[in-house]
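Lecture notes, unit on protein representations.

Consider one protein chain, 79 amino acids long.
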Amino acid sequence: MITWHDFLAQQERYKDLLYETENHRLVRQMLTGRERRERFYCRTLAWLGRHLSAWGRDLQERYDVGMASTALSAANRVR
């Protein structure tokens, strides 16, 4: 026979399960949104990194030659 105490314990257990289920749903919802946002940021940062590297190489190629010849001519003047 089920007593009043057993009934109250079952109700409490049911409330706990509902609470856990709702928390789990909210966590999944938050993580899903975060993954989408992080994927966007990762793609954007990867694109930016590639372009910064390319721009840096271009600048080094353009200005290192000029700087090397300037440094050589300055060194020749000192002698």
